[in-house]
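Risk register update: the risk of archive-format incompatibility is retired. Evidence:
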Amino acid sequence: MLTNKKIGLCAAGLWLLACGCHLLYPQQIVQVSRLLPVASAQYALESDGGVSYTIEGLRLLIRHLSDPDLNAMFPTESSEGEYSINPYTFGDYVDPTVGYVRNRFTVFEIEVHNRAFAKVELNPLKAILLTDRGGEFLQPYGILAGSSPRNFESYYRARRSPSGNDFYRFNMRLGIVRSNNYNIDRKIFKGESYRGLLVFDPLAAEVAQVALVLRDFVLKFNPHDAPLETTTLRFEFRREVQRELVEREQDESQSGPVTYTRLGAPLQLDRGAAGNPTRAASALEGELQDRLTDINSCFAREFAAGRAAAGRMKVRFAIDPAGAVAAVEIVDSGVVSAVVDACVRSEIEQWTFAPAAGRTVAECDLEFIDGRE
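Archived output:
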């Protein structure tokens, strides 16, 4: 005889089947980093959270875009979990190693309204983002390889697998970047306006204040089209970090073992990293965290096929002064798979970092986890 409790469970099961087997997962955490402008005599705060600078009919408006802002700009491209193609965020993908949606970049929107000057020009690649971490500064991302030491083409190529789907996502991301980044060699003539995005690496957890510095903004050109008068503008921001709860729908048909990869120990560096903020352990660890999803894909395929075991792997690699990975060595591996070892080595060989003086040798401890345990 069925009790009322059993009848209720059966009804619930039938309802789930009738609804196409979609479950509402428990609330997930999204960590949101916001940069709020600091008021000063030269700069006016705007109602939309931005800050503006005006001189003789020329107006610049700067606004920091948080991940929710960027996901709202590209809603369809941000709703596919780890396969989201929004180039500026991780979409709605919750990183299992930290339990929340990670911050991929630091993004500003810049608007220039020229009502007075014959023509003006901002070179986005001359901008820098200063932080309050002992003289640290971040360089902006260019679009194509070779345009800047940090660029979207190299960033996403290093994270691209050989699959056709990954090539599709790579091309879609670059297409979005080409259409939305602030472009170089863009002169704004009298009566025109222009707007675009300026992108930097994500901020370290301890950063509380930043300054966006736009260097050599050209106000006037000589008859030969060379800069005649330039100015440098500095926009100050204070940082707020909040964790917000969201709900996500997940298809129940996505079954099978769940794996993830995390750093099992602090990153170890040789003396070549001393005194260089871009090669500090905290800076490199942040970049490694962003790339663990790609490393995990090497493990997940072999683990699902029963050809690899959960375990640890110690990897040593060198970063040359230009930021390229010069050598990768699997020092020790407990995943019992030469295929995983070779795949991890291949992934790391494609990584690029910020240029720095000297060669840096790093050693990381990767932990491959069976998420069912």
